[in-house]
Amino acid sequence: MMFWLLGPKLVLILEQFLFSFDAAEELKEAIAKKNHKLVYLYNPNLVDEIWKGSRPMPPNKPIRIHELKYAGVDVASKLSFLRSELIDTCSSAIIVSMLDEIAWLLNLRGGDVPHSPVMYAYLIVEVDGAKLFVDNSKVTPEVLNHLKNAGVELKPYDTILSEIESLAAKGAELWFDTSSVNAAIVNTYKSACDRHFEIHASDRKGNLHNGSNNQSWGPSGVYRASPISLAKAVKNPAELEGMHNSHLRDAAALAEFWVWLEGEIDKDVKLTEVDVADKLLEFRSKQAGFIDTSFDTISGSGANGAIIHYKPEPESCSVVDPKKLFLLDSGAQYVDGTTDITRTVHFGEPTAREKECFTRVLQGHIALDQAVFPENTPGFVLDAFARSSLWKIGLDYRHGTGHGVGAALNVHEGPQSISFRFGNMTPLQKGMIVSNEPGYYEDHAFGIRIENLLCVKQVDTPNRYGGIEYLGFEKLTYVPIQNKLVDLSLLSVAEVDWLNNYHAQVWEKVSPLLDGSAREWLWNNTRPLVKQ
Amino acid sequence: MMFWLLGPKLVLILEQFLFSFDAAEELKEAIAKKNHKLVYLYNPNLVDEIWKGSRPMPPNKPIRIHELKYAGVDVASKLSFLRSELIDTCSSAIIVSMLDEIAWLLNLRGGDVPHSPVMYAYLIVEVDGAKLFVDNSKVTPEVLNHLKNAGVELKPYDTILSEIESLAAKGAELWFDTSSVNAAIVNTYKSACDRHFEIHASDRKGNLHNGSNNQSWGPSGVYRASPISLAKAVKNPAELEGMHNSHLRDAAALAEFWVWLEGEIDKDVKLTEVDVADKLLEFRSKQAGFIDTSFDTISGSGANGAIIHYKPEPESCSVVDPKKLFLLDSGAQYVDGTTDITRTVHFGEPTAREKECFTRVLQGHIALDQAVFPENTPGFVLDAFARSSLWKIGLDYRHGTGHGVGAALNVHEGPQSISFRFGNMTPLQKGMIVSNEPGYYEDHAFGIRIENLLCVKQVDTPNRYGGIEYLGFEKLTYVPIQNKLVDLSLLSVAEVDWLNNYHAQVWEKVSPLLDGSAREWLWNNTRPLVKQ
To answer: Taking residues B7-13, what's their average pLDDT?
Structure first.
C-alpha cells in the first residue's frame, strides 16, 4: 500500500492483489470515515515501476503429485463434491485462491512458500471443467498428465483477470469467498458484470414486449464461505494414517535430537538457540519423506521462551542456559504428513515455581486431551478446560489453545480452532486435527508450553444421550513430557495415570524406530511416575 | 392476540400492552412475510368488549417498603446513578416497565404477581423528577411518604400513555429498552413524535431564513438496554447479607422438612407430591420474614422427576415412591432474600445406575462451584465444567446450568447466565448471584438435579496474571447433599474433600438454628465420607 498526501487528505493506493476483498472493503470504509480516500491500483502497475528491474523473480519450484495413498481421495471425487456445491448454490463456477485449498483439491504440492507445500496458482472450477492458472515452468510432464486426467486445463498465471472478465461476459455466476479471494479478482468481476448488465439492459429495452422481461438481469456473484476449507479440515483415513506415520518418524528424530542435546549440555558445550534448531533440522532431515520444517523453529532459552512467537537469529540469539527452562516449538513437513510439537525441558534442577507452572500447564493439556463432548460443539467450549488449572492460581496465557493442522499441508489451517475468542462457531468434527497447546509465560523469566496434535474421533460412550455422537481426541504426537518438571503433589491420580499411560504408548510406538542411546533415552524418559 | 380470516389472508390483532416492542416487531415481520397482516389494538379495546363485566379485577395488594437495611442503597442514590446514565446517553427520561427494576429502584415490594414481590406499575425517571404510575389504592401513607422523600410523584396507572404523549410533545428524548417496554408505549411515543415533528416542520418552514434550520427536528427516542438490569444484578453487601441470612433460615426449614418426610416414609404414610410440597411450605412459613414461595414447587417422584418443569397437581400427581429417586426444586421469598434449591434423594436403596448418574451430576456441580476465572468471563465459558463429567459417559442435560437470582426479588433475573447458549456475553461480576444446577433426566425413569445458589466473589489468587481480578464463587445454600447417592469410586480425593467440607459448613452454619430431631438429622446427614 502506498499513500500520497494531497492537501489535508490522504490518498491511499492499494495493490488489489495483496488484500482480500473483505479486508480491502473494511479498509476503504475506515478510510472514508476519516475523509481520506482509497484508490485501487490498476495497470500500469505503480509498484512494479518502483521495483523496476530489481524485483526478485517469483518462486518457481516444481510442482509434485501428492500421491493417492497419502491423499486418500482422488481429484475427480473432490471436484465432483465441489460441483455438487456449485449446483446447490446456483453458481456457474467457484474461484479458488487459497493456495492450500488448490493443493488439496488437485492432490498437488508445491514449494513456493517456505514451510507450506503449496504453489502460487488460481483455480476456477466450473460445472463442466476446471482451469488451473499457474506458471507453466513449474509443471512437469507427470503433473500435466495428472491434471489432464482430472479434466483440469492449464492457463498462464497472469491470465486470471481476463478469464474472470470473459466468464462475466458469458453471464457466469461466480462464487467467491471474499474473506480470501483478493480484491482485484472480485472487483474485476463486479465491473465486468456492470458492463455486461448495461449492454443487456439496453438489449432488453427493445425486447420488453417480447415477454422477456422476466429474464435475469445478468450475474451478480455468489458471496459465501468456501466449502473446501471444511472438506479439507475433515481428514480421511489415508490422510490420518499419513499423519500418524509421519508423527512417529518425527518422534524418532526428536528422541535422537534430545539425547544429543542433553549430551552436549552435559559436556558443557555452548550451543546457541539457532545451533540447536539447526541440529534438530539435521535429525529430522534424515527421516524418510522429510521435506521442510513446517514453520520457523521457536527455540527459546529462559526469558526468550516467554516471547510467544520468538524466532532466534544467529547474530543475536542466546546460548541455551542449562540452568533455565528451554522451550522448543517445531514441526516438519513430510511427504505424508505435517507435525507441530512443543516441549519444555530443564537440563538441571527446576525451581518449585517452574514445576508448579509446568504442572498446571500439563493439567490443562490433560484436561483438553481427555475431554469428551457432544457433536456440534464449537472448539471454544473446550478452551476453558485447558486454562482452568492455571486460573485457580491467577495465571493464564494470551494465545489460543488449539489450531487446525493440514495433512501434509499448512501447519495452520481453519476453519476450526480452540480459543477463548468466541466468534468461531465451527463445530469440531470427527477427523479434524487440532493442536493442544496450553502454556504459561513469565515475562523476563521463562516460557512453558506443552503441545501435542490431536485428531477428533468418536468416543464409544456407554450412553448416547440425545441420540447423537460424543466426540473426543486421539493423540498424534508421541514424545516424552519431562517428568522432572512435574510437581506430583498437584496431580490427581487420574492425571498421573494419564502421564504414565502416555509414556507407555510413546515407548511402545517409538522405540521400534530407535536404537542405541536414543532408545535408552526414550526408556529413561518414559518411566512411570508413582504418586505416594 | 386475536385473528380474523379475511379471504385468504389472516388479520392478526395484537393487544399492544401484552407484547414487548421487539416481540411485536418480530411478529409483524414474520406475518408480513406470509402476506398476512398485523394490526395493533387501539381503543375501544376489543378484548375488554369480550370480557365485558366478567374480567377479574387486577391484583391490588398493598405495596411495602423494602427496608434500607436489606436494600443497602437508598432510592436517592439509585435515582442519581440512573440520572447520570440519562445524561451520558443524552436522554431526557427513561421509561421503566420491568416490574423488578421498578421495585429495586424504589426500594419497594408488592404482591401483585405470584412468587415475585413486585407491583404492577410504570416508572418514568427524568433528569429532574420521577413519576410512578400505580393504582393509588395500593399505596399506604408510609409508602407515599417514602416516595415523596425520594422526589417520586404518584400518577394513576392508566395515565402512562397520556404522559408519554405529553413528554413527546415537549420534545423529550425518551430512553426505551425495547426488549422489555411494551409496544403500546413505544408506538404511542413514536406517533406522538411524528405529529410533533410535522407541526414543528411546518413551523420551521417559515423560519428557514431566520438561520434556525440547524435546530433538531424533534425527538426520536433512545433505544438501548436498560442500565438498571446490570446494576440490580450486582448485589451490595446488605443485599448479600440478607441473601445469606435468609438462606440459613431456609436451610433450617428444609432440615425440619426432610426429617419429617423421612419419618413419614418410614411409617409407610402415603404422601402425594403435592402433600409434600404443601408441608414444605408449612415449614418455611414458620421462618421469620417468610413471604411466599419463589416459584411453584417442583416435587417429582420417579419418572416425574425427569419432567424438567413438572408441576404436580392435586388431582393427578403421584404418591412419593420410597423406592425411587425424589427430586425437589423449591424456593422462598423472605423479607431479606430469595432462595432456590434443588435436592434429589432416595428413601431406600438407589441402584448403581442412579448412583453413577447422581455422582456425575455432583461432579459437575463441584466443578462449577470450584471454578476460578478471570474477570470479564461470560457465564457460558463455565457451562462445560458442569457437563464434562456427564459427557464422559455420553450423558447431558437440556437446560442451562445457572440463572441470575434477585435479592428479595424475582427468582429468575438477568442479565447474566451460565448456559450452553453462547449468545449471552454478559461477564460474571463480583456480587452477582447465579444458580449452580446441573442435572440428568432419564425419560420414564428418574430425574436428578443438585442446585445451590452461588455469589460471585473475588478470589485471592497467589498471582494476578494480566493485572486483573480472578473470580470464583461463594455458596449461599447450606443443605446436605445425600451421601447415600454418591458413588465414591468415581470421585477424586479433591471432590470427596469438597463434599465433606461443604457438609462441615452446613453443620456449622445451620445446626445453631435447629434442635431435636432436625438437629439430629442434620448431624447424620453431614457426616464425612471416607474414600478408601
So the answer is: 68
Q: How far is CA B161 from CA A275, A432, B146, in A?
A: 79, 58, 25
Is A491 within 8 Å of chain B by CB? no
Tell me which residues of chain B, numbers 354 to 373, contact chain A at a CB-CB cutoff of 8 Å: 371-373
Average pLDDT of span A336-342: 98
Strands (E) across A361-506 are located at 373-374, 402-404, 413-418, 433-436, 439-442, 446-449, 452-458, 470-475
Residue B73: Cβ within 10 Å count: 15
Please tell me the pTM assigned to this model.
0.92
In chain A, CATH 3.40.350.10 covers: 64-232
Within a 10 A sphere around the Cβ of A154, how many other Cβ atoms?
15
Check A462 against B391: CB less than 8 A apart: no
The pLDDT value given to residue A43: 57
- The minimal CB distance from B463 to the residues A393, A420, A470 is found for A393
CA gap B45, B55 in Å, rounded: 13
Closest among B435, B437, B376, B461 to A389, alpha carbons compared: B461
Q: What is residue B29's predicted lDDT score, i.e. its pLDDT?
A: 85
Among A122-136, A230-244, A299-313, B323-337, the least confident range? A299-313
Q: Is the pLDDT of residue A458 over 50?
A: yes
Contacts with A385 from chain B: Cβ below 8 Å: 384-385, 388
Q: How big is chain B, counted in residues?
A: 532
Tell me, yes or no, if B388 comes closer than 8 A to chain A by beta carbon: yes
Cα angle A216-A219-A223, degrees, rounded to a multiple of 5: 125
Phi, psi for B474 (deg, rounded to 5): -120, 135
Q: Does the pLDDT of residue B104 top 60, yes or no?
A: yes
What letters, b where the CB count within 10 A reaches 16 and e where it falls short, cover A329-340?
bbbbbbbbbbbb
CA distance B493 to B484: 17
Contacts of A425 in chain B (CB under 8 A): 422
Give the strands of the sheet with A325-330, arranged side by side: A298-301, A325-330, A341-346
Interface test with A, best of B356, B366, B368, B372 (most A CBs within 10 A): B372
Beta pairing, strands B402-404 & B332-334 = unpaired
**A398: closest chain B residue by CA:** B466
Where is average pLDDT lowest: A60-69, B17-26, B204-213, B240-249?
Answer: B204-213
Chain B residues whose CB is inside 8 A of the A442 CB are: none
CATH 3.90.230.10 location in chain A: 237-516
Distance of CA A448 to the CA centre of its chain: 22
**Strands B122-126, B129-133: parallel, antiparallel or unpaired by DSSP?**
antiparallel
Helix spans in B150-208 (H) = 160-169, 183-207
CB contact under 8 A, A394 and B465: yes
Rg of chain B in Å (alpha carbons): 26
Domain A64-232 has CATH 1.10.8.60: no
Partner residue opposite A465 with nearest CB, options B378, B394, B461: B394
How many whole angstroms separate alpha carbon A449 and alpha carbon A440?
7
Please indicate if any CB of chain B lies within 8 Å of the CB of A459. yes
pLDDT of residue B200: 61
Classify domain A237-516 at the CATH superfamily level.
Creatinase/methionine aminopeptidase superfamily (3.90.230.10)
Dist. CA A501–CA A366, nearest whole Å: 12
pLDDT score, position B209: 45
Among the ranges given (B200-204, B284-288, B336-340), the one the predictor scored with the smallest mean pLDDT: B200-204
Question: How many CB pairs below 8 A link A and B?
Answer: 82
**CB spacing of A388 vs B385 below 8 angstroms:** yes
At residue A500, the pLDDT reads 98
For B380, the closest chain A residue by CA position comes to: A381
